[in-house]
Amino acid sequence: MHDSQVLIPLMEKLRQKYLPEVVVMDAGYKTPAIAHYLWGNQMEAVLPYTRPRGKEGFFTKRDFMYDAWLNAFHCPNNHLLSYVRLNREGYYLYKSNPTLCEGCTLRTECTESRVYEKSLTRHLWEADLERSEDLRHTERHKAFYKKRKETIERCFADAKEKHGMRYATYRGLAKVTLQATLTYTAMNLKKLALWTWKKSCSSSSFFILRAKNDNPVFFSFWNCRFSTV
User: Fold this and answer.
1) What mean pLDDT value characterizes the chain?
2) Which of 115, 83, 82, 122 is nearest to 98 (CA)?
3) Model confidence at 22: pLDDT above 50
4) Which residue, among 66, 6, 68, has the nearest Cα to 34 in the 3D structure?
5) Residues β-bridged to residue 22
6) Residue 157 φ/ψ, nearest 5 degrees
7) Cα separation of 146 and 56, whole Å?
8) Each residue of 111-130: pLDDT tens digit?
9) Angle at 200 between CA 198 and CA 206, to 5 degrees
10) What is the model's pTM?
11) How far apart (Å, rounded) are the C-alpha atoms in residues 212 and 209?
12) Residue 70: pLDDT band by 50, 70, 90 thresholds?
């Protein structure tokens, strides 16, 4: 299962307790469905730049300008790709006029179609993706995306380099899930200790972690003050 397929169920779970305002993601989550869901639920979708796809030496989709008024694409030679139909995957299909394409001087850079026809698709929620693309250039969204490498990517790096998460130790979904759960629990405890130490660092003392069975566990730290958790 691709990562992007689990994002919306995860956000629904988080929204039961929190009110997310900004969601920062990498290129794997840059899909029209995710952008539509986030903007539709009053959450800003911060997405990265992705390089244009396509065959080298040919025009990319970004070289074709979409005209919302005409519901058509303008090609680099200023001809129209008209709307044809909406397919089952939620994409609008646009095609050029073969008569015009056959004698076009830019055809060798546009399409290799034997019937001299250029086709493009546009998702019905493409506007939400374009909204994120426009805001990507703002200082606000640049600052948000910069924090991603300092927080999320740092967690992944620590898990792989310091906690053996580069490879699975066990086989089977249940055992690997257990390994991941224990690993990130240990990492969270390390963060808790670090944050508490930074918050109040003065003289040496103790702090207590009380388990569910009410058996206290004591930890001593030098030159740091901790409160009961």
Assistant:
1) 84
2) 115
3) yes
4) 6
5) 44
6) -65, -45
7) 30
8) 988 999 999 999 999 999 99
9) 110
10) 0.72
11) 10
12) very high
